[in-house]
Design a protein that fits this description.
The protein is 38% helix and 20% strand. It is α+β, with helices and mostly antiparallel strands. It has a seven-stranded mixed β-sheet, sandwiched between helices. Strands 2-4-3 form a three-stranded antiparallel β-sheet. α3 runs antiparallel to α4 and α5 crosses α10. The structure holds phenylalanine (PHE).
Amino acid sequence: MKREDIERIAALIGDLKCKTQKEVEEARVRLLGKKGEITALFDEFRTVDKAQKAEFGKALNELKQKAASKIEELKGAIVDTGGSDAPKMDLSMPGDPLELGSRHPVSIVRQEIVDIFHKFGYDVAEGPEIEDDYHVFEALNFPPNHPARDMQDTFFVSAGHLNPILLRTHTSSVQVRTMEKMDVPIRVICPGRVFRNEAISARAHCIFHQVEGLYIDENVTFADLKQAILLFAREIFGPDTQIRMRPSYFPFTEPSAEVDVSCNICHGKGCNICKGTGWLEILGCGMVDPNVLEASGIDSKRYSGFAFGMGLERIAMLKWRVNDLRHYFENDMRFLREFSTAPEV
Ligand code: PHE
């Protein structure tokens, strides 16, 4: 082994210049690869005299170190993707823009309804989606096996005992929990997800959203209910909106009514959305049945109240003239983008 060989390679390393990562790799192979020049010197080192081993060993190790750090340095300094004809990176180019999401139409409508009732002095109450039979049915005046339970096809989580666990079919269960917890007067709205075992179609889904409301105080009358619904309908569908009430039945309210608003598309003349009637159904409501008040420990001789409930998808469909409920669940970006600047009706 000659000292000049080591010096020659050291000088070569010092002068080493590379333009591409490919050239760096070639230099590494030439110096440190299996058949590289430095590797060859290490092989030769075995035949060096014992007396010179310490000196050459040190020099060789330093040489190897120098080569390795030079290769690393060159690698870090070159910005390309390896091949000489690879496209050069333009660091001044703008990055990929991040697309901003927008709120889901059902969330927009929910917030709007919450804001309207907030102005009327209502608080928001929430409760569990997985409920027991007591809060969804029994406390709301549906006795066990009462045929009224057929109105709502229920998903049971565990049946077969006295108080089955189920997915709530309406957010009236939150009203029951509120009456149990809060003192009268009560003024709450309960937005939330509900579940019914229904076949999915343009007009029905097994998961949807409701907002229900409850108002209990002394001397609350049907006239208060009517006024609250009228003000709400005008806030959400526009100041010219008319309402009409049709007698209906719910186990938890007496008397009960269904509410229609004047069709905001044909303005009462009759079109295919309102099926020629000029009216669109938007919610169910009524005076809270005294049995319901008593079940939750409220004195029905002293207090009275009203309740109402509506489906958010339905309100959103009417507001934005969406003709198929399934659009709300499919997350098609073309549909969702339409609401990034939701038009006012
Ligand atoms: N809970 C009823 C439903 O889900 C709606 C409703 C609420 C009706 C309050 C009357 C009073 O269909």
